[in-house]
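Progress note, sequence design subtask.
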């Protein structure tokens, strides 16, 4: 936090781009690039989700740091059994992530953050800004993707996506950190008020546009959904208590956001990117200024409790959650009829978009 007690995020330092241009410094090639990520970090989580949705697992290899952020920064486990889900540094056997930063730029003085997009050919960092990495993964590697036609940044929606991204980032994605790391009352009050005003705005947006489709922009899943999801997934288990963002929970205060998140979580490949053990242990054990005992509370993630499940591609909900979201009692024994109308949907992967078709 700054002297006035307000949290200010450092700007990412490495901002090169991978290109399809054969003359470019960093050319899109299969198995040339490597991702360094944390399963706890919402910014790295964005990248893993887009990698999964595009089908780039065989193109972009990954190393996963330990969930604990210590005095030396992110660390790789030397024994993967000690931290299930984390890996060794597959490229150089580094002990700390900072070794990769210093390999790329000796004398580097900035923060050692994830995600990192690394070039295995020139042994350097291409980019460490998550918003730019997901744009690269969206189209630049299409020649090697299993779903090359899928785009999460369609040209027709770019002004709207950019506009929504701006206020969601400032008020929600970064807003939880501004509340959690505030060291004075006034900046905390500002941040938490701004945060819940923005969550209310998302809730009203989803409710107003429910007939158009399940996502923030109707029938098309976009990067705006991905960027918001990684914060919402962590909200109730971590940000609500640990960061004092406790006016409401997503579970009890935002039924439309809850259903939206459940639908996204049900998409193929998303569940595998979500690791609540890493998330809760990272926040509660790393931030000793906030939680000096490092005791990890017993927390639950509603999306992972089996309250939501997929049948024929539909995201359905348990009856008590249906009542909470709609105010209506589900009297039928059929879970299909419990899905909140006005539309029942079945998700399909197409060559160009995630689209919706009506189920009978």
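Output:
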């Amino acid at each position: 936090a700054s002297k006035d007690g307000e949290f200010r995020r450092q700007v990412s330092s490495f901002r090169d781009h991978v290109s399809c241009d054969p003359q470019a410094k960093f050319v899109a090639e299969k198995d040339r690039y490597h991702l360094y990520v944390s399963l706890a970090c919402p910014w790295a989580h964005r990248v893993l989700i887009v990698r999964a949705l595009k089908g780039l697992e065989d193109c972009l290899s990954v190393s996963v740091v330990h969930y604990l952020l210590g005095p030396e920064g992110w660390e790789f486990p030397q024994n993967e059994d000690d931290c299930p889900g984390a890996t060794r540094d597959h490229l150089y056997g580094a002990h700390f992530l900072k070794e990769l930063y210093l390999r790329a730029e000796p004398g580097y003085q900035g923060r050692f953050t994830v995600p990192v997009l690394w070039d295995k050919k020139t042994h350097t960092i291409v980019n460490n800004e998550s918003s730019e990495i997901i744009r690269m993964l969206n189209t630049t590697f299409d020649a090697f993707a299993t779903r090359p036609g899928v785009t999460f940044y369609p040209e027709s929606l770019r002004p709207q996506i950019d506009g929504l991204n701006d206020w969601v980032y400032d008020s929600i994605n970064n807003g939880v950190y501004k509340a959690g790391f505030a060291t004075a009352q006034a900046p905390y009050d500002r941040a938490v008020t701004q945060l819940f005003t923005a969550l209310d705005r998302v809730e009203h947006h989803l409710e107003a546009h429910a007939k158009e489709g399940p996502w923030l922009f109707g029938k098309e899943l976009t990067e705006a959904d991905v960027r918001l999801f990684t914060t919402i997934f962590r909200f109730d288990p971590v940000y609500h208590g640990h960061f004092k963002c406790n006016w409401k929970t997503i579970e009890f205060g935002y039924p439309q956001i809850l259903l939206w998140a459940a639908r996204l979580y049900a998409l193929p490949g998303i569940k595998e990117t979500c690791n609540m053990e890493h998330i809760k242990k990272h926040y509660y054990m790393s931030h000793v200024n906030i939680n000096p005992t490092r005791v990890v509370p017993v927390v639950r993630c509603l999306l992972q409790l089996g309250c939501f499940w997929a049948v024929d591609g539909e995201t359905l909900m348990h009856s008590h959650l249906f009542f909470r979201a709609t105010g209506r009692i589900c009297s039928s024994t059929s879970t299909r009829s419990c899905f909140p109308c006005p539309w029942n949907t079945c998700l399909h992967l197409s060559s160009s978009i995630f689209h919706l078709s009506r189920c009978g």
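The CA atoms of residues 345 and 358 lie 5 Å apart. Work on this subtask will continue into the next period as scheduled.
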